[in-house]
Design brief:
about 300 residues, alpha/beta, 8 strands, about 15% strand
Length: about 300
């Protein structure tokens, strides 16, 4: 695993210390951690791209008052392994998530089925693990998720198609691109310290390669394979969306909720794609209300 972030601890390093456990997956070392009471109902948080578990830090701490919260960085993201030739596709992430649940002893029976909260492509990962790999959930919350075609902006597709070219950008230009890209996910503007922390994993030689690798490997076929099966999801489902999401417009929330039997739809006014940053208190309240049934 590449070691980064030398120097005085900052927001990123402080959160990274929470991920004090490892799991050796087929795509490299996964870093993960737990918060909350040992006897709390299990809850797992899934991040998306180009994020890491850092985006869940405030929500995780709030939910840890009642739940045993599991957080993890997917291979190729955050503090987890980044390497040339690494499989970081959505197919790999869905398979690894199912394996990780087994490693945690979650989902084997009804008493140990976790609640799952997923953001961005974490939604696809959670849905693939459930529909293709047999992962079972007590409840599933899908927050501004990648789940329905079409997805991927023209700029996103260009970065994937020309990944080898963008990998050769001078570091300063790469950093400027990453910071501008990340900032565009917020409708209300990111605190500069948060922007620094979100960009940090993608800087340096390993991070720059990993940034374009994951975009290059993400493909709509991974949601196309499961989109027709959303009606099979039996766990209670919450679809939660920021109304000002410019990355995945809110009309997808209505479409997705309509495809999943009994799904509940909650909209957070004025929040962008990074609803965890734009409206953390509102999101935590919505999630706590939805998850209350699995905390009994």
């Amino acid at each position: 695993m590449t070691v980064r972030n030398a120097g005085a601890p900052g927001a990123w390093e402080s959160w990274a210390g929470t991920l004090d456990q490892t799991y050796e997956s087929s795509s490299g070392t996964v870093r993960w951690g737990r918060l909350g009471p040992d006897d709390g109902p299990p809850l797992v948080l899934l991040h998306g791209t180009p994020w890491s578990s850092y985006t869940w830090r405030e929500i995780a701490r709030a939910l840890a008052q009642r739940f045993r919260v599991h957080v993890w960085d997917m291979p190729g993201y955050g503090t987890s392994a980044m390497s040339d030739g690494q499989d970081v596709s959505l197919a790999a992430q869905g398979r690894i998530f199912a394996e990780l649940l087994g490693h945690w002893g979650l989902g084997a029976d009804a008493a140990h089925q976790p609640a799952v909260v997923a953001h961005d492509f974490g939604g696809c990962v959670a849905l693939r693990a459930h529909l293709l790999h047999g992962a079972r959930y007590a409840r599933l919350a899908l927050v501004d998720v990648v789940a329905l075609a079409p997805w991927g902006s023209p700029a996103y597709r260009l970065l994937g198609q020309q990944a080898e070219v963008f990998r050769q950008l001078p570091p300063a230009l790469h950093e400027a691109l990453v910071r501008e890209y990340v900032a565009s996910a917020s409708a209300r503007g990111l605190d500069p310290r948060v922007l620094d922390a979100l960009a940090e994993p993608w800087l340096g030689e390993a991070g720059q390669g990993a940034f374009y690798r994951q975009i290059q490997q993400n493909d709509q076929r991974f949601t196309d394979e499961i989109e027709g099966r959303y009606g099979e999801v039996e766990a209670p489902v919450l679809v939660c969306w920021g109304t000002a999401d410019t990355w995945i417009p809110v009309d997808r929330a209505h479409r997705l909720a309509g495809l999943i039997p009994g799904a509940r739809l909650e909209l957070i006014e004025g929040a962008g794609h990074l609803v965890q940053e734009d409206a953390p208190a509102q999101l935590a309240a919505v999630l706590l209300e939805f998850l209350h049934g699995s905390a009994r």
